[in-house]
Amino acid sequence: MNIAANPVIEANQTVYLKDYQKPSYLVDSIDLDIQVYDDHTQVNAKLVMQRQTAGNLVLLGRDLELKSISLNGKQLTENEYLLDAEQLVIQNAPDQVILETSVVIHPESNTQLEGLYQAAGDLFVTQNEPEGFRKITFYPDRPDVLSVFTTRVEADKKFPVLLANGNLIEAGEAGESRHYTIWQDPTKKPSYLFACVIGDLAVLKDRYTTSEGRDVALEIYAEEKDIPKCHIAMEALKHSMRWDEEHYGRPYDLDNYMIVATSAFNMGAMENKGLNIFNTSCVLADEEYTTDAAIMRVQSVIAHEYFHNWTGNRITCRDWFQLCLKEGLTVFRDQSFSEDLQSAAVQRIDDVAVLKAHQFPEDSGPLSHPPRPDHFVEINNFYTATVYEKGAEINRMMATLLGKEKFRLGTDEYFKRHDGQAVTVEDWIAALSAGSGVDLSAFLTWYNQPGTPKLEVHGRYDAGAQTYTLNFKQSLKSNAKYPNLKALPIPVALALFDQATGEQLVLNSEALFENSVQDGVYLFDQNEASIQFIGVETQPIVSLLRSFSAPVNLEFNYSDEELAFLLQYETNGFNQWQAAQTLLERILLNGHDAQIYLDAIQKTLPFVIAKDPLLASRLFDIPSEGYLGSRIDTDYNPIIVNEAREALLNTLARELGNFVKDTYLSLDPVAQKDFSQAMGVRSLKNIMLNFMARQGDVDVFDLAYEQYQNTSNMSERLGALKVLVWNDAPQAQDVLQDFYTRFKDEALSLDQWFMIQAAHPKATAETIAYLTSHVDYDLGVPNRIRSVSGGLNANPVNTWSFGVQHFIHLAQYLDEKNPIIGARLLQALSRWYTLAEPQRSQVKAKLEALKPQVKSKNVTETLNSMLSI
Ligand code: B3K
Ligand code: ZN
């Protein structure tokens, strides 16, 4: 039958938010039977469906071999349905439908890591968000179709673990050498949250009692040798469960919670209902094998996926345009959780650093889109920093404005109104407004508009009147695709300081939203406005956007001395760091004198080291070459940025003199009172070791070698390894070999070995060729690809020379094999248009030449957008 006459999904069709239509059928229940064999898997499905609106019965399916189909007990012949590469359509179906299908799929050869795939020899897992379920069976695979899932999983007994969502209701033999389990998930869920796991894994077990008294079995599945590395994740899980009860009143709702670790995973982790599937990098944590940063990440991702149980699973998205509804809110929740785990100021610093390094550049270039996009070709391309990180900032702004109590009233209302539903960003804002009693509808503009606003602020002191006035102006770069950009509500947290004493002043202004004694939030929601403080006795120094209260580019005409003042006296750790960053950026990009930064940091450091060594380490964050490059919009020459940064590092090393080695020798991670402090001390020691190498300290390589050998902590070992390898020390090859021997069976540690070599500042095309042809390099494992590509991309001079070919090759190779990762990696070249000539035209020509060679929606859409500037 000719399907073209009917509503079909074309391969590269753009989907628009404005075209949303309710599904014509809902699914009351689905019975799935998944039988795994070595060379194929058979999937039988029984869907009980009911008509909701007029229209065809549309089931989405991709790469499925249809073996049989019946409707209300009657087998359908080929001319009773329409089938193309994307869907199966039945016209004039009755209102009540029981549809049974049998299909064959091939997880054993699925390299895209979407749907059901064989992740390793003895492990099959699923990844169904956003549109993977249609690669398992025919189904209305969209988030607004919620159903009760019963799943039978059958496989050879060489796979002893057979898991699916919900409660285990039956298990038994299935003929000789085969067995099965049956699982029932009582909660209605969309298909993207379906999961099953078939494999040979060991398990770490624990229990948790919820605030409602429910006894929950907790299980983390991993390879036997990795089970000892699952304890931190297990503690983080219990901590998250408690945290969500205490901060949002949300207890867990099932009797079990399972997490499965796999090394073959496209992203960090997936919040499948009651059966999370995790990249090993986000679940295995152990000081001996993984870094401090990785340990923090494990805890935050565990929390993130757990928090999705309420924000994402119980309340889900109506359509994929609403992705930031669940992701932005859940990232905001996991960031708040992590602020309780380590220095809160540093957590905020790290989150903002990620936002500025990834989201700001994304939003200023050809891949810019609103946090809630209004169209897409491939939704997988929209799991972006804008959806996640900017989405989180929107929630943070509303939370800042409301304060703790009102925000909680708002979220309570959201959970009360929408539990069990698939909703929109509008529903979220409406519930938050109704619950808190504050109209937040203006914040919708943040979801619907792209771009980072520029916030210009001018301060004026009137000594006679003893007033201090701040004038605010906001603007957005014009955007042809979004001609009617509106003013945004921008909460500005601020403080005033006495210049002479460094003391914070009591704010006196009627314009402040939350006027606590010493801190205030001003909601700036016009194109221009001003506020005035009265009773200000001397010219103050203002600190704006404390804790980065809004995701904007602030312009305030600070003198370098005023920034040095804030670095020294601001009590908000984030703004202290921001003052250092602004000073450093001026030194690096505008040629300002480094001395003021040096003086301020030398005065401030001893106090900060004593109080918060982790924060102290961040005051040495010298903006990366990649970040600096992202601040340059035309005629960008990576070599000039590299030279400026090298020169500054050499100056700092010289001027800090003995402080460097004294600090290195005086700090002891073991003597610290908690993990956050120990992490800070390890970080500071590694920073000092790098400075010593720059100073040409005669002992530095011996000290680094000693640090490398005499520790069982990965952050210390890796810190020393970097100094030796990146400085081509005589011991470099020895320690690289030693590291390889120690960790060759530890994939996550070995990723670091690849990364360090790829990130060598003097790496060449030959270095990358050596690494990518290494016996342990595997293009089927995204973590390994990322370790080399990420390492290479740490040096923009390399990225923009031999790296261009590397990324283009990868995109081309992965276009078919794993297009999600191919499209993602290609984005390393997205700022090609800022390069100085002739590099700009050279890279552009290579990207143009790639166009006809790629077919996937993922890579094609990304490439088209990248070239659309
Ligand atoms: N929701 C998943 C992301 C799925 C990405 C699909 N390409 C992980 C998370 O955000 O928690
Ligand atoms: Zn998420």
UniProtKB/TrEMBL annotation:
<dbReference type="InterPro" id="IPR027268">
    <property type="entry name" value="Peptidase_M4/M1_CTD_sf"/>
</dbReference>
<keyword id="KW-0645">Protease</keyword>
<feature type="domain" description="Peptidase M1 alanyl aminopeptidase Ig-like fold">
    <location>
        <begin position="451"/>
        <end position="556"/>
    </location>
</feature>
<feature type="domain" description="Peptidase M1 alanyl aminopeptidase C-terminal">
    <location>
        <begin position="560"/>
        <end position="867"/>
    </location>
</feature>
<keyword id="KW-0862">Zinc</keyword>
<keyword id="KW-0031">Aminopeptidase</keyword>
<keyword id="KW-0479">Metal-binding</keyword>
<feature type="domain" description="Peptidase M1 membrane alanine aminopeptidase">
    <location>
        <begin position="233"/>
        <end position="445"/>
    </location>
</feature>
<dbReference type="InterPro" id="IPR012779">
    <property type="entry name" value="Peptidase_M1_pepN"/>
</dbReference>
<dbReference type="Pfam" id="PF17432">
    <property type="entry name" value="DUF3458_C"/>
</dbReference>
<dbReference type="GO" id="GO:0008237">
    <property type="term" value="F:metallopeptidase activity"/>
</dbReference>
<dbReference type="InterPro" id="IPR001930">
    <property type="entry name" value="Peptidase_M1"/>
</dbReference>
<dbReference type="Pfam" id="PF17900">
    <property type="entry name" value="Peptidase_M1_N"/>
</dbReference>
<comment type="similarity">
    <text>Belongs to the peptidase M1 family.</text>
</comment>
<dbReference type="InterPro" id="IPR045357">
    <property type="entry name" value="Aminopeptidase_N-like_N"/>
</dbReference>
<keyword id="KW-0378">Hydrolase</keyword>
<dbReference type="InterPro" id="IPR042097">
    <property type="entry name" value="Aminopeptidase_N-like_N_sf"/>
</dbReference>
<dbReference type="InterPro" id="IPR024601">
    <property type="entry name" value="Peptidase_M1_pepN_C"/>
</dbReference>
<dbReference type="Pfam" id="PF11940">
    <property type="entry name" value="DUF3458"/>
</dbReference>
<dbReference type="InterPro" id="IPR035414">
    <property type="entry name" value="Peptidase_M1_pepN_Ig-like"/>
</dbReference>
<protein>
    <recommendedName>
        <fullName>Aminopeptidase N</fullName>
        <ecNumber>3.4.11.2</ecNumber>
    </recommendedName>
</protein>
<dbReference type="InterPro" id="IPR038438">
    <property type="entry name" value="PepN_Ig-like_sf"/>
</dbReference>
<feature type="domain" description="Aminopeptidase N-like N-terminal">
    <location>
        <begin position="32"/>
        <end position="193"/>
    </location>
</feature>
<keyword id="KW-0482">Metalloprotease</keyword>
<dbReference type="Pfam" id="PF01433">
    <property type="entry name" value="Peptidase_M1"/>
</dbReference>
<dbReference type="GO" id="GO:0016285">
    <property type="term" value="F:alanyl aminopeptidase activity"/>
</dbReference>
<dbReference type="InterPro" id="IPR014782">
    <property type="entry name" value="Peptidase_M1_dom"/>
</dbReference>
<dbReference type="GO" id="GO:0006508">
    <property type="term" value="P:proteolysis"/>
</dbReference>
<dbReference type="InterPro" id="IPR037144">
    <property type="entry name" value="Peptidase_M1_pepN_C_sf"/>
</dbReference>
<dbReference type="GO" id="GO:0008270">
    <property type="term" value="F:zinc ion binding"/>
</dbReference>
